């Protein structure tokens, strides 16, 4: 557990004149689900391709398990599964035929495994249809099934919920969480849908312009960046000034107030003071979710 499973040190990569990755450093522990987050073009997919040994770094070293993907990519590709944007499926084959093809590549003989995956991703009714006729969401779910055929110990998921409807997103996210819990699969997940991945990730790597801005668990990043607690309270309270019970307050809706507190410990006395005067239907911290943290880290890195 002490030694990280993935270690990226001083990795740079250039395509032509464009410096796509610039001195990247991060680690991933075995069994973690880590979100690799960053704006379009920040280099997330390139990083995944380097980790897989599909392309080589110009500088720096990468270790995945005991292997260096630049020198020794085959064992990494054997023990990992990857879902890319296009999913790499054959459109002129059926869903089942696609899985059979990739099962053969991985030396997987167990046909029941393929049927179980089709079932888990809600594709049983469509397994004999050509993948070319599948919807975007169905292709994405089949792409995930394909990535999982050989029970990989490491999964790279590039935008796993892109193109999925809310039900599909829930199904995929639940599968990812259950898989990680049941088999301890290490998962590196790129996504833009921050509120969705927040439910499954143990830690995050925030990227921008090919650099790591920050890395850590939600709690670690929160402790470092968030100095105050913004609490939105649905209440009938009508404060008479800009302070209530010693706390700065702002009206943000007809029955909604926003309080700026020094820390979480100040929430209970504030709510007690409000309840002495009025009702409270809801109280939500609005500046500690992943999206708020993400924007805060990015803002501070520009200052
Ligand atoms: N093979 C390549 N040749 C030239 N440029 C490339 C190549 N692959 C990626 N790039 C460039 O590198 C930059 C980073 O691309 P990458 O796909 O890694 O970003 P990303 O963070 O995954 O973006 P997105 O969120 O849009 O998927 C982009 O400007 C892209 O055009």
UniProtKB/TrEMBL annotation:
SMART domains: AAA
Domain called ABC transporter: residue spans: 6-234
GO function term, MF aspect, one: ATP hydrolysis activity
Keywords: ATP-binding, Nucleotide-binding, Transport
Family in the record: Belongs to the ABC transporter superfamily.
Protein name: ABC-2 type transport system ATP-binding protein
Protein's organism: Tumebacillus permanentifrigoris
């Amino acid at each position: 557990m002490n030694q990280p499973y993935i270690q990226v040190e001083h990795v740079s990569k250039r395509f032509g004149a464009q410096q796509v990755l610039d001195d990247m450093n991060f680690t991933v522990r075995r069994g973690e689900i880590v979100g690799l987050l960053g704006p379009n073009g920040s280099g997330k997919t390139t990083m995944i391709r380097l980790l897989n040994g599909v392309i080589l770094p110009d500088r720096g070293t990468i270790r995945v398990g005991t292997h260096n993907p630049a020198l020794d990519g085959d064992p990494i590709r054997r023990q990992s599964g990857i879902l890319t944007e296009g999913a790499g499926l054959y459109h002129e084959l059926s869903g089942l035929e696609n899985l059979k093809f990739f099962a053969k590549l991985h030396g997987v003989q167990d046909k029941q495994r393929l049927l179980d995956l089709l079932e888990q991703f809600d594709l049983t009714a469509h397994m004999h249809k050509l993948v070319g006729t599948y919807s975007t969401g169905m292709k994405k779910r089949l792409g995930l099934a394909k990535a999982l055929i050989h029970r990989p110990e490491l999964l790279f998921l590039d935008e796993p919920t892109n193109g999925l409807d809310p039900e599909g997103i829930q199904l995929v996210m639940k599968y990812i969480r259950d898989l990680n819990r049941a088999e301890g699969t290490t998962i590196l997940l790129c996504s833009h849908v921050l509120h969705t991945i927040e439910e499954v990730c143990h830690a995050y790597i925030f990227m921008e312009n090919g650099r790591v801005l920050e890395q850590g668990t939600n709690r670690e990043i929160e402790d470092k960046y968030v100095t105050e607690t913004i609490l939105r309270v649905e209440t009938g309270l009508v404060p008479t000034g800009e302070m209530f019970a010693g706390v700065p307050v702002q009206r943000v809706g007809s029955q909604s107030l926003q309080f700026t507190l020094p820390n979480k410990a100040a929430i209970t006395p504030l709510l007690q003071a409000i309840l002495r005067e009025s009702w409270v239907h809801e109280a939500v911290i609005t500046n500690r979710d992943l999206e708020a943290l993400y924007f805060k880290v990015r803002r501070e890195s520009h200052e």
